[in-house]
Amino acid sequence: MALTYEELGRMGVEGAYADAVASCQAVLALIDGASDPGWYASVLKDMGDVYDAQDMLPQAHAAYEEAVRHTRRMESTSASLITVLIALGRTSRRLGKREGETTVSGDGAAVNGARIDAVRSQPRDASSEPPSDAPPPPDGPPPEGKASDEES
Q: In the prediction, which pLDDT does 143 show?
């Protein structure tokens, strides 16, 4: 029923999303999450999808997190866990953007091996000299305007 209501909500039927959430909650009341974590997680993921479709990101995030918790308790979780983690990650990213977060967790991005923050800190008219730890130039004549070691 919840999935049908969710589809009706996507088609613009007023109140269908609320009915979808109510259906999910009714099913969760019937399922024991401890003895049947797979079904419980599946319903939580569906409920997260309904919240996500309404752009209710905090509620979607909470439902997905709970679904991940229950999915991890299953014996074979590979595909199910991946699906829920992807939904959780997308919602987390959207929620972060909405709340104005501008930083990215982790090591940071790199362009051609240089961290982006290092690239940004260089002035635009910085010398084009290669860094001292750069590999030596290929054999051949020196670039125009530069003297070789032998000529200096």
A: 52
